[in-house]
Amino acid sequence: MGSIGVSGVRSSVRSRGSSSTTTSDPREKVKDCCRKLVAFMCTQVGVGGLVVGYAIVGAFGFMWIEKDWKNPQNENVAKLHATCVCDIWNLTVSGFTFNETAWRSEVDRVLKVFQNDFAKAYKEGYNGRINEDLWTFPASLMFCLAVFTMIGYGNIVPKTPMGKGLTVLYAVFGIPLYVLYFMNMGKVLASTFRWLYRRLYECSEEGVGDHDSESNLPPTPAPRIIVPSTACLWVMGGYVLTGTIMFAEWEGWEYLDSTYFCVTSLCKIGIGDFVPGANILEALNSGSQTKLIINFVYLLLGMGLIAMCYNLMREEIRVKMRDLKADMRQWLEDVRIRIISSYRRKRGY
Amino acid sequence: MSSPTDTLPRTDGGPPGRPQRTRPRLTIPVLRLPGGAPISPATGAPAMVTIPMTPGPMTAGGIPISVTPGPFGMLQVYPNKASEFMFKQFEGFKDFTMNTAKSGLSAGEKTAFWMYGKVRAWSRNWFTHIFLFLVVLSYSLIGAVIFVAVEGTYEEQGQADLRRERYVLLRRLRELTRDPVLATDDEMWEGTAVSEMKEYEKTLYESFKHGITLKPDNDWRFWNAVFYCGTIYTTIGYGHISPSTTTGRAITILYAIFGIPMFLILLADFGKLFTRGIKFLWAFVRRLYYTGSCRKVRRTVPVQEVMKGVQLVYDFATFRRPSQMVGEPGGAAPIARPEDVELQVPLNPQPQPNIPLDSNEPPGTPAISTFEVDDEFNLPISVAIVILLIYIFVGAFIYWTWENWGFFESFYFVFISMSTIGFGDFVPQHPMYMMASIVYLIFGLALTSMCINVVQEKLSDSFRQASAKIGATIGLRVNEEDGSITPVPPPQIEVPEVHGTVTKSQST
After folding, report:
1. Which range has the worst mean pLDDT, A177-181, B99-103, B182-186?
2. Where in this chain does the record put each Potassium channel domain (chain A) (predicted)?
3. What is the DSSP annotation of A65-129?
């Protein structure tokens, strides 16, 4: 292999020497493309793939750890059922049948007890299903995503001590990795957006500036086109709108609830009262598996878009914030001097 | 444009305050730019006291504005430095007048003056921090009031709904007992009753999920609402309380959009305070340890790294260009809060290898480390991580004693909260503990972001090295600045032609 490598090099040197201006050799082009691709993957796309792989591995890990956990509240609630019904039956047969008000008040009391115990069980973690149904693959994937993007929905949480410890470890390594991904995605998307914007701008200018080509002006260099911040805001708004419509249609949420979900997820708050695909009955059919995958991609891409917006808007924001901060400092000094001088005036200095 | 100087020393013995027509006051040449803001030629004349005072009804009258003469009316980003310089001039003049005036004062008044001077010096440093903190506090309180108003009423109604459901169930059971067929058969009655109960249970579960609980006092009390607001703008988002009304959700959206950037600024500010304190402590400890040998040692790379990280956290939120450390070209590294990251990375300015403290260069900030004593035996990354771990363990210990959680659960809770993941399965119950938690978490967040930044910088460095190595072996080089890839021709190997001209098909 070494000789072939050497001879390959030799040939490439020779071919480069012979055709110095054009690398018209198709094999050379292919090699070049391959090299570029691999290096690109190592820098930018590779991180994205790493993140997705990390999520998948984590999902399998958590699924395996958590599926055998028995929720002690399930038996508890079953017992509550039985006691409540027994009590009511006992009440019924013990002769209250013809005294309605007494029967009602007694049964009401029994029901209240059941309600309070049920609330307690709910607080302790009763959720009406067994863990194996809860930790399906899409749900675990969503959980892993919630951990390393720091959203943290909390609709499913690890209950076993090992699961909790694994969560901590997973976060410690996942979060910096995610930050790396975020930074790279932002760069890529920002350059893509700039290119797109420039193309659109030029296309729109071409129609206008055609009649100028007849004049014998020297070709002016293309003006440096800076993407305005409003374009970024429009992009973000459009993305949130897309998400709203998507989730509202799929999950049957209201539009405002969808927007609420999108905004709280993209801001990485992650309250957790709305989580797509959390409805267990849906998750068991395969159609919603793809939905969860799409949710995953939507959130990841959304974070990247936020990075892009910061990237594109940073100059403008920076200047504005600087001015704002200087103004604020000035105002603060003003206020402080005023307070001090009024105090002194009061004291008669 | 200058007014005739009135060189009467101020008899009231203090720095010139607001212009009063009746009082003798000090007027000093004021340079006025067409931009409108009177700018004092402060840096030009160290001996002259330069206090811009307007002799008449002008806009910014009489208040020393902390600006330095920049390009045409622009404010430089060293307002603090300039104002400090100016106040130093103030002090000089004031001391002069005070000393002449004080000789006739009693002891009590002298101490009053001394205390006043101390308080003023102290307040000057801390005013911004306190102001930011007050802003965030008032934002939380206002948000809490709004949420209580919106959600509290809804909750009461929800509880009424629950009661109604219970009565419905009661009526059904009553009908069951009246049913002559079922009344005789135990099993059947129980079976039907259980199915009715299951229905009821489902409604209970649904309403619990929406936040209606059975507690005698409702969830949306004032302090709970404050805590909820805190979880929103720190982006922790526990979810143990969540808005159930549409209005509540809409308000949450707006609240988040405005609250999160504000909190980021506060976080960076506190982070800077915190790290300054730690560094000061560290330097103090080291100086104590090496008493007598506190010579300044040449800074080493690891030290620079963590200081860079700390500096960048602050630089982001104040949106300044990151300061470069001495000898580190192009080191603009990303920051823990990923949003901050993006601001710094492409912003890789022309490498400024040396930024002296009083540089007149376009905006950068003075590097923190130039203020401090350094020592060769620092391992800053470990130090940062150790401090973070100590902080987490202290917090875990506190929660372990306060709440009835195990120690591991407390640790888990503290970690999940500080990394802003915030599942919400463990939430502190008492309102007072919640408030203390928020303060604790704010500092913890500053610490965490510093550590994450340091770790992530390491990761990205090794990533870059790895990709450079890979690129080198496959004949490409990745440019540092923009990640573009340029092909590097493999080194030409001079091999003598043994077989004459070798065609491509033969050689490969």
Report:
1. B99-103
2. 134-189, 238-315
3. HHTT---HHHHHHHHHHHHHHHHHHHHHHTTGGG-HHHHHHHHHHHHHHHHHHHHHHHHHT--SS
Is residue A42 located within the same domain as residue A167?
A: yes
Domain termination residue (choose one: A148, A182, A216): A182
pLDDT at B118 over 70: yes
Domain at B219-290+378-486, CATH class: mainly alpha
Contact B467 A43 (CB under 8 A): yes
Contact (CB<8Å) B422/A13: no
Residue-averaged pLDDT of chain B:
66
Say yes or no: A135 and A190 in one domain.
no
Helix (H) or strand (E) holding B129: helix B107-178
Q: What is the total count of domains within chain A?
A: 2
pLDDT tens track for A193-214: 888 888 888 888 776 555 444 4
The 10s digit of each residue's pLDDT in B188-232 is 777 787 788 888 888 777 777 666 665 555 667 788 888 889 889
Instruction: Kindly report the nearest CA distance between residue A214 and chain B, in angstroms.
Output: 37
List chain B residues with CB under 8 Å of A42.
Answer: 466-467, 470-471, 478
| ipTM value | 0.72
Domain encompassing residue A323: 184-202+225-347
The tens digit of pLDDT for each residue in B26-80 reads 555 544 444 444 444 444 333 333 344 434 333 344 444 444 444 444 444 445 6
Mean pLDDT score, A86-110: 77
pTM greater than the 0.80 cutoff: no
The reported pLDDT for the residue numbered A244 is 92
CB contact under 8 A, B504 and A310: no
Q: Which of A273, A313, A321, A343 to mutate to probe the B interface, most B CBs <10 Å?
A: A273
Domain parsing of chain B, residue ranges: 109-216, 219-290+378-486
CB contact under 8 A, A260 and B250: yes
Residue A95 pLDDT level (bands cut at 50, 70, 90)? low
Which residues in chain B touch residue A11, judged by CB atoms under 8 angstroms apart?
502, 504, 507-508
Last-in-domain residue among A125, A147, A182: A182
Structure confidence at residue B175 as a pLDDT band (50, 70, 90)? confident
CA-to-CA distance for B209 and B24, rounded, in angstroms?
Answer: 71
Give the mean model confidence (pLDDT) for residues A156-175.
Answer: 89
* Beta pairing, strands B31-32 & B38-39: antiparallel
A297, part of any domain: yes
The B residues from 134 to 173 touching A (CB cutoff 8 Å) are 162, 166-167, 169-170, 173
- Exposed e or buried b per residue across B120-158, where buried means at least 16 C-beta atoms within 10 angstroms of its C-beta: eeeebeeeeeebbbeebeebbeebbebbbebbbebbeeb
Residue at A38 is within a domain: yes
Most confident of A122-131, B104-113, B135-144, B426-435: B135-144
**Which candidate in A31, A316, A329 is best for mutational testing of the B interface (most B CBs within 10 A)?**
A329
Kindly report the backbone phi and psi dihedral angles of residue B80, in degrees, each rounded to the nearest multiple of 5, phi listed first: -65, -40
Question: In the numeric block, which tokens belong to residue A156?
Answer: 């499913």
Helix (H) or strand (E) holding B477: strand B476-478
Nearest by CB to B237, from A39, A97, A270: name it: A270
Q: Residue for token digits 């309403």?
A: B207
What A262-266 contacts at long range (C-beta under 8 Å, 24+ apart), as own/partner pairs, is A262/A302, A263/B253, A263/B256, A263/B257, A264/B237, A264/B252, A264/B253, A264/B256, A265/A151, A265/A299, A265/A302, A266/A240, A266/A299, A266/A302, A266/A303, A266/A306
Which residue in the set A14, A35, A175 is minimally distant from B419, CB to CB?
A: A175
Question: CA torsion, points B140, B144, B150, B156, in degrees to nearest 10?
Answer: 160
Here the CATH number for the domain that contains residue A196 is: 1.10.287.70
